[in-house]
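Protocol step 6 of 9: fold each sequence in the batch and record its structure tokens directly after the sequence line. For illustration, a two-sequence batch is reproduced in full.

Sequence one:
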Amino acid sequence: MAGRDSFTPEEWAIVRPVFLQSARGHLDTIRTGLTIWTTGGASPERLRELHRSMHSLKGAALQLGFEHLGETARLLEQVLREANESLESAWGWEEWIERGLLRVQDALTMIEREQEETRDARFIADLQSWLTRIQETRPGERAG
């Protein structure tokens, strides 16, 4: 993981805005794809596109040392992977993505303002719990 300490101030002044622009592009792609999905444009390719964008966002965040953003993106990537593997068992995935995207947007705003990231421990714990239930549930069953 590179992180901010790997860059000179001059390099960071270039890298951070490029990261933010790219991250916002991925965020827009995910939001647009989710909107299309929920308004009748559901397809396996759409889910793969959402997954790719989240994967790219996660990788860039972790590479630059934005650990909390990277952790959130990693979990959201898992949500998309579960949805891609079995929409039937991954009930409620769209809501988790929407909630997670709000956290991603907040993290990007903090990074833009050069404020320290904060970790939403409750959201992370709830999402991890949901993922565990989904991973333990077979298609056609519902976790209690």
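Sequence two, same batch, same settings:
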Amino acid sequence: MSGDVTREAADPERRGATRLGFWAAVVVAGAAATALALGVTTPARSGPFCSGSCITYPYTDAAAFVPRDYFWMYPPALMSLSFVVLLVCVHSRAPAEKRVFSQVGLSFAVISATAIVCDYSIQLAVMQPALSKAKPETASCSRCTTPTESSLPWKTWDTCSLASPSSSPHSQ
């Protein structure tokens, strides 16, 4: 054990990876707790779990819930990116004979973070502005932002990519 402490003190790169990994873990835990709190307090607006004032297809009333219903997307995106940083630190500290396992975990974390950040970025950059401007031609795509038991990220991408060119908030 004292050999690990001596090696740790002698190698500033290992010390830096440990410190960065600690703070990445703190951010992951904080973002997870925040995402959980926001997810629990954001009521379902449509689908089988909607219990109050539900909106129905074509979801034109979804604009009334912007931006409140989008706040929950920020912590999971931050958590995904911080988790990648955490796994980079774990990979750098792993013994040589175990690095293949940490590399596999890191690869899956990168894939997951890419999917989540791309999905939420599309929803925040396209859907939220379109709904706040109350463009009826994009309101039907708002179902992409309401997670249900059958919603998957690639369904969101497919559905939103089929929207007309005028659905972009940047197009005039």
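Proceed to step 7 once all outputs are recorded. Observation for sequence two: The chain has one domain: 11-45+54-147.
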